[in-house]
Amino acid sequence: MSFKNISCQDRVINLFQKAIIHDHLAHAYIFVGQEGIGKTLFSKELAKAIFCQHPGADACDTCSHCQRIANDHFPDLLFILPEENSRAIKIEQLRYLQEFLNVKPLESKYKIAIIQSADKMNEESSNCLLKTLEEPPSYAIIVLIITSLESVRETVRSRCQIIRFSPLSVTAVKDILVNRFQLDTKQAERLACISNGSIERAALLSGTRALENKNWLVDRILTLEMNDNLSFSKELLNEWHIQDLEVLEEKRSQVKELIISFLLYYRDLLVCKTGENDLPLHYRDWKEALLSKSTSLSDDVLFRIINVIKTSLEHLDRNANITLLLENMITKILYLQFARGITQSIF
Ligand SMILES: [Zn+2]
Are 21 and 128 contained in the same domain? Predict the structure, then answer.
């Protein structure tokens, strides 16, 4: 692998290739973008390009440095990620990062520390990182990988150069599913359409009941009525088999998938309202039903519903009670969809 194998991130690649050639690398970066679009993969390729023994703007992939980075055995590169079954990056891990950076590079002129899921740092860990960011050693490069900027403290953000990653195109996701995961073209295309530009989501969905779950959800959501409120939350928990999951993290991840599916549905309705012929819909099999539904809801209502869903996603990440969260989200959506609509049409 090298930058050549990274999909849909040409702007970011160009930026770093220039920085490497002109030796203008910053001490700290934040890589931000949704999950599963290649931020971690890119960070590893970036480390290779920086450490490669053959000077240039991309890794050679054959020298000893490139090979050892590929095998996670390079002494000047450190990856930190939440330990298994842990929701947080612990203070001990940040202290280890400090010690790592305090020792001069062994084989290169840089030392790179990459923190995956840096949004999972608690207050104590953030403080520890902040101290390092305030006075980084001259040879240090720190990369924080996150999904949303709000999840990192302003004091940390302000000391980092922010690099935004784009979602992958449907074609890129489809090609990766076919070439790397050996899925057949038809299935790859359907999964790519509902992946929201994330290869991780698409791969995850391919091994689950995801397609059936989503088909059920869209069929059901199209026929929702105002008084479905509490019964619909219970239906969701049953139909998506969320009740059956015993590990809390698995439950949370399934609920996240469910909420994102809601988000994609209402985004599709907004897309329908643009009136373009070639609509880039996630649920393209329901195109006619979505077009018809979209005429009954105003842009304002759809934006409000989308905000409700995004807020629910944020709360989910903050340990909210799953059942209450779903009930609350659905009540608000139904109110906006029906009560507001009625009020607006009367007045
Ligand atoms: Zn190399």
Answer: yes
Same-domain pairing of 339 and 307: yes
Tell me how far the alpha carbon of residue 74 lies from the centroid of ligand 1, in angstroms: 12
State the distance from the centre of ligand 1 to the C-alpha of 105, rounded, in angstroms: 17
Angular region, 72: left φ>0, alpha ψ -120 to 50, beta rest: left
Expressed as residue numbers, the domain containing 12 is: 3-164
pLDDT in tens, 199-227: 877 777 776 667 778 888 888 888 888 77
Query: Could you tell me if 235 and 299 lie in one domain?
Result: yes
Last residue of a domain, one of 164, 196, 223: 164
Measured in whole angstroms, the distance separating CA 80 from the mean position of its chain's CA atoms is: 18
Both 91 and 234 in one domain: the answer is no
Q: pLDDT of 283-302, one tens digit each?
A: 888 888 999 999 989 999 99
One domain for residues 160 and 301: no
- Indicate if 20 and 156 belong to the same structural domain: yes
Residue with token string 């305030």: 134
Count of domains observed in the chain: 3
- Terminus-to-terminus CA distance in the chain, angstroms? 60
Quote the ligand 1 centre to 114 CA distance (angstroms).
Answer: 19
Same domain, 256 and 158: no
Instruction: Compute CA distances 137 → 25, 51, 109, 112, 129, whole Å.
Output: 13, 17, 11, 11, 13
Cα 76 to averaged position of ligand 1 atoms, centre (Å): 14
Separation of CA 69 and ligand 1 centre (Å): 9
Cα 73 to averaged position of ligand 1 atoms, centre (Å): 14
Please give the distance, rounded to the nearest whole angstrom, from the Cα atom of residue 51 to the centre of ligand 1.
7
Report how far ligand 1's centroid is from the alpha carbon of 14 (Å).
Answer: 19
- Quote the ligand 1 centre to 48 CA distance (angstroms): 7
**What is the pTM assigned to this prediction?**
0.65
Cα(147) to ligand 1 centroid in Å equals 29
- Please enumerate, as own/partner, the contacts of 102-105 that have beta carbons within 8 Å and a separation of 24 or more: 102/137, 104/137, 104/139, 105/76, 105/139
> Ligand 1 centre from 178 Cα, in Å?
28
